[in-house]
Amino acid sequence: MSKLLVIFSILLFFIPTFLLLIYREVFILSKKTRSLSPLITSREQQEHNPDVDTNDWDLHKKRLFKFGRSQYKGLTFFLSSEDRIFYLTDRGTKVYC
Question: 12-24 as b/e, with b when 16 or more CB fall inside 10 Å?
């Protein structure tokens, strides 16, 4: 009877551990997809937030003149006091367009 109890307790421990190891990737992937924020924002949200990346040139120019900065195709552009458009390089130098 005691041998049966030992075997049962070992199985009770190893079966959940084995299942956890097998389905671990499924649980990790499901957590990642739930934690993502919405990647596509509405046109109105893009218009009122110059830090949201856009590919629309007209929207980019509108935000640039309204806020003094706008992100276009992954690069943040700024408007200088002389109304010249520029962006900053990795070294911090201004490149005027």
Answer: eeeeeeeeeeeee
